[in-house]
Amino acid sequence: MDRRSFIESCTAGAACLSSSAALPAFAADARPKAYARALLVDEQNQPLRASSLRPQTNYVFHYPFEATPAFLLDLGKPAAPQSLTTRSRDTYQWPGGVGSRRSIVAFSAICSHQLVYPTREVSFISFRKTRAQRGVQDSLIHCCAEHSQYDPARGAEVLSGPAPQPLAAILLSHDPQADTLTATGTLGGELFDAFFQKYATKLSLDVGAKARNAVAGQAVVRELDRFCRNNVQC
What we know:
By secondary structure, the chain is mainly beta. The protein has helices spanning 3-11, 192-198, 200-206, 224-227; strands at 33-41, 59-62, 69-74, 82-85, 91-94, 104-108, 125-128, 140-143, 148-151, 157-160, 169-175, 180-187, 217-220, 222-223. It is globular, with a radius of gyration of 16 Å.
């Protein structure tokens, strides 16, 4: 997608900004933050089995708030713990993947550069099994807005582009007997306050008054292609 087409798409209602927009305010506290526990369920509201996830496939759910999307990925390989740093130079330890192969990870789907995120209409950010046109390697999360790229196998560390910090991690617990996954909190530089401020009008139309309600009890997981009508590739 060229720059003109991208900006036209943004103007038509996509959740993104042109490169001239001001950078968002960043959270300074990178410590783990507990939120209400939410069991991940499928579209039939049945507990999602970790073993049912297709490797290297985009899944999306909303957590820790009703309007904040997150990516769920089975990378198909173990993801080891990683030391990471936020834009404000706070260091934190990402615990790595969960599941029987330690290959399942989850991250906020809000790009740390301009807060681009997946909506039901369009997504400019997604995991790419093979590299994007301007990609530096396979198996990265790529944002088409300004071509920021994050490595989900390394805690969503920034590998390329203007993003100033990793995507915030969603902390997961895995029950090996039931093979279920539960979201329990976040880790890293949260951008939720800036997100709600920037998209207040859009979120009120898309989600309504519950946009900032905390997710509790359960969170529905869908494939990104089922959630979003247009998953932009670039």
